[in-house]
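REQUEST FORM: STRUCTURE PREDICTION
Request ID: SP-0412
Submitted by: Lab K.M.
Chain count: 1
Length (residues): 184
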Amino acid sequence: MPRVLVPLASGSEELEAVTIIDLLRRAEIEVVTAGLEPGPVTCSRGTVLVPDVDLDDVVEDDFEMVILPGGQPGATHLDRDTRIHDLLARQAAADRWTAAICAAPSVFASTGLLDGRSATSFPGAVDPKRYPEIRLLEQPVVIDGKIVTSRGPGTAMDFALQLIELLLDADRRAAVEAKLMRPR
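STATUS: Completed
RESULT:
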């Protein structure tokens, strides 16, 4: 099974983080949650999440995908952490997947991962004037190469299901989605 990393920062959007973690685990993908700092993480709406490990414990590990939840100030904390920038650079160099939702695509923008690519984010999270080389779209989920971006809490389920399909296959996505009782 694929192994993915979901870094959790203070102020992360809990709906996005929990949706990603839950749906990928339903697909039997190994999800490792890692706090930027030791201990529980208080999310943007006050929900407290307990990461599996501290980021320092897994920062040198290889993952099939690194997934950044959004939210503020969570995305800002992710962007200010050099370990996150190093992880993303390593993922890109190894031609492995990276994914970000809501405000977190701004981390990809600041690292240059989105240069010359199409992406989406929460409106205003990636400033088109600051990053004119990024083609910003208003789609729920955008895939460009090995980079996946999404808009926000309302697209978290679509985002997570797309990640399942990319990491496994369409059949596994369909199996997970069928049990969610989503309206068609």
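NOTES: Helices lie at 14-26, 55-58, 74-80, 82-93, 105-111, 156-167, 170-178.
Reviewed by: T.R.
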